[in-house]
Write a structure and sequence with these properties.
It comes from Cudoniella acicularis. By secondary structure, the protein is of the alpha+beta class. It contains five helices and ten strands; from the N terminus they run βββααββββαβαββα.
């Protein structure tokens, strides 16, 4: 298994996490498109990024209008394209099977909460109308099947995660059981543990051409706010290279020292974010 953490250089952002809403329609400056009725996919929770936290693209003259939503199995190809673009070392990328396992286990119809732990930050693009460039554009999915302009939702960054019973990221928690998709998978201590009280972040990534403009900060702040508000775990844990430690500390993570995880030959630091107590969480929300 490989390390897949934090491949971006983002600026500090003093602004609070964006508020939640239920649709990406307000990304556009024009009238909102109604949400189609009878859609087979259940309603998902979205975060619309406020204007003062939006970003200019190097490859397109217009502003990005990003929003954040849970990842699903339909985002698999976009996630793989993002991993390939964000991590120059193939050994640090999340494999297709690993991402597939986490996203499929998070399918709304499968009963587990693994998918609720995986978020993506997207922007809406109408193909052919701009010179917008992104490695994930080819894999982008339609925003809504009823949109006549063919607008697609392009992945800019993601957080891929699972639960673990360990207080820090370990080789076991970063792995996955190879028989996960069999009819009768064997019990395993590898990968997602639904009863765990720690979320281990397997991959935090932003497309290279969109790095350095605060996208990672916005995504991580929204992620922390959502997991804190859900009250399903006690902490977040990840491993980071030494040059990323300070960046995570600005988000509230604590450096716990050298990690025992040996992904990519080791040399990582354990970073942990302790969630607020229930009382403080209630006041926070």
């Amino acid at each position: 298994m490989t390390p897949n953490l934090s491949s971006f250089e983002d600026q500090k952002s003093p602004t609070p996490p964006p508020t939640f809403t239920d649709s990406p329609n307000r990304m556009s400056s024009g009238p909102s498109s109604p949400v189609p009725t009878g859609s087979p996919e259940p309603q998902r929770q979205f975060v619309i990024v406020p204007p003062d936290q939006q970003f200019h693209s190097r490859s397109a003259p217009s502003n990005l209008h990003p929003y954040i939503r849970p990842l699903t199995i339909s985002d698999l190809e976009s996630c793989i394209a993002l991993e390939n673009a964000a991590f120059t070392d193939p050994g640090e990328r999340a494999t297709r099977e690993k991402v597939r396992q986490q996203l499929k286990n998070g399918d709304f119809n499968m009963g587990t909460k693994c998918g609720e732990l995986c978020l993506g930050i997207f922007t809406t693009v109408v193909p052919g109308t701009t010179d917008f460039k992104a490695e994930t554009l080819a894999a982008a999915r339609p925003v809504e099947t009823s949109r006549k302009n063919g607008a697609v939702s392009v992945l800019l960054g993601h957080v891929v995660a699972a639960k673990t019973e360990a207080p820090v990221a370990t080789d076991e928690s970063m792995d996955y059981p190879r028989d996960w998709n069999s009819e009768h998978p064997k019990p395993s201590n590898l990968g997602h543990q639904e009863q765990g009280r720690t979320i281990v972040l397997h991959s935090v990534a932003v497309l290279p051409r969109f790095q350095g403009r605060g996208i990672g900060q916005v995504l991580m702040k929204a992620y922390i706010a959502q997991m804190n508000g859900a009250g399903i775990v006690d902490r977040l844990a990840l491993i980071a290279h030494d040059h990323k430690v300070t960046w995570y500390e600005t988000l509230g993570f604590t450096n716990k020292g050298s990690s025992k995880a040996q992904f990519g030959g080791g040399g990582w630091f354990d970073m942990v974010y302790e969630m607020k107590p229930i009382e403080a969480r209630a006041r926070y929300g």
